[in-house]
Amino acid sequence: MTLQIDAHTHILSMGTDAAFTKRYGREGSLTIYRAEGKLPSHRCPVDHEWEEIEAAEGKDGFGVVGPHETVAAHPGFDKIVALAVSPQYLEGRLMGTVDVLGQTDVTGEQHPERCNEYIAGCVRAEPERIIGFASVNPAYRGVKAAVDELARAVQEDGLKGVKLYPMYQHWSPVDRDLAFPVLAAARDLGIPVMIHQAGSTRIDAKMELGRPALLDDIGRNFRDLKVIIAHCGIPWIEEAMFMLTKHPNFYTEISYHIATVTRRDLFLFLHRAEPFFVPLEKIMFGTDFPGFLYDPVGLREKLLTVNEEAAVLGLPPIPQSKLDGVMGGNFAALLGLSDETAGAA
């Protein structure tokens, strides 16, 4: 049976300020609605236009999705990776993962500084299905606080990796004072690091901090650290893939990218990986659920049926064992999960 793991999802809310999180969600979906012709492309939409599209789509800003809803949206999946978002200031507002609806067992004041506690609460709510990744921001309270919190999240909360967001939080992933101590801590804790090293439609995100090639210095200095490039570095996909070519300890997951291409393009992407000297064992399935285009079932179907394109293109099919790896086996191997602990039949 094919092991099925979604290596990239988000969960709960992005802040305690409902009006601000709605604006944040609207900014994230604006490019999608513009491309679909549902919102004007030549100017910023006004409130009534947003309200009309949200009523029609049944979505209101950045949706709050809890652990049980996340599992329900992933029928047939063995594991789902829930990623924390560490605290940061955006437009003067503090944002990060919080449990505004009380969907976990974490009590007390709601605050993004407790983002990793909330993710651990999601794991406790669905222990057989959800894998939790922590997040820390060394630019928020300083490097020592970030390193200490990462150690606590792994050793006390049992989280299995860490997600970093340099371009959103305006620090370089190869800053030797800010980033390297966090990377060293992850290495010493024996956990993988997933880095949002890709583009973003968020206006405040710094694109110059998102280039995958920036991670080269990490590959040179942290050769025992498992590094996952999120979103396959989109739009710099070949650059991200070359980082996997160069560095044995680099991997990628294909959320966002998989949603923007046709099944034929996905087949060609996977077919070209090994001639580009990237073993398919380094590539992992992810969705970025609950984003607007990121239906786990539909994206799984796109991946698992790519070989239907082979005959049309006159190319050999991708070996099923390698597709199975992309679907879940590769992530399980990276995290050291056995078939039993991963849930494989």
From TrEMBL:
Lyase recorded as keyword: yes
InterPro entries according to UniProt: ACMSD, Amidohydro-rel, Metal_Hydrolase
UniProt keyword terms in alphabetical order: Lyase
Domain of life: Bacteria
GO molecular function, one term: carboxy-lyase activity
Domain Amidohydrolase-related residue range list: 5-337
PANTHER family membership: 2-AMINO-3-CARBOXYLMUCONATE-6-SEMIALDEHYDE DECARBOXYLASE, CATALYTIC_ HYDROLASE
Listed name of the protein: Amidohydrolase family protein
Organism listed in the record: Herbiconiux oxytropis
